[in-house]
Each structure stands twice: as C-alpha cells, then as structure tokens.
Design goal:
120 residues, mainly alpha, 3 helices
Amino acid sequence: MPTTNGDEERYADKRASFAKSLPHTDQGEVEPGAYADWLSILASGDPARFEYVPRDPLAIAKLNNPQATYAFDLVGIDSHATRLIPPPPLPAARWPSKWRSFTGKHWRLTFHFRATKRTS
C-alpha cells in the first residue's frame, strides 16, 4: 500500500484528494457518495466497474485511462517495486472557510475552463 500524506483522512470533504470529473457540491467540494463509489471501483480492480465511475453532469473531459495504474511494463524499471514519496500535505486547514470555499470553486472553474478550451 502506498504511503500517503494524510490529506484523505485529514479532510472529510476530500478537498485535497483526486476528484477530477466527479460530481461536486455548489461549494466546489466533491460529493462524498461519488468519492466513496470511486474508491470502491478502484479497490475492486474490476475493469467493468470503470464504466460506472460517477461523472459530474458539467464535466466535459473524461478520465484518461483510469485503469493505467494496473498496467505492468516488461521493459525498464519494475514500476511495481518502486515508490514515490507522498506530496506535502495541503495546509488549507488553517485557511478561513471563505478561502477554502473559494479555492474549491477556483479549481473547479479552472478545470472546466481548460476542458472546454481543449474541446473547442
């Protein structure tokens, strides 16, 4: 199991966790049920379940090969025997709530803008 920076456990709203294209609340935070479904799909490793990843109705871009984590290269370094150090934890716990709300909305708008720009 990879070492984490603790953000997933630290923030109940999952603000520092992967949530690209998952449904979000009006505050820009990932919907907890959608995030739980995402984790369940990942843990199962069943390729068929990836067809049921929850998607935000406003998401334009799709996930690009979410099953790549299960790939194994026969050439080069053994990717399953190497580990990356976790990123530093998100310091947002010390931010005022209005900044946390803005940050979530900002990243959601940034993703939406970039996804829209690429498809037009």
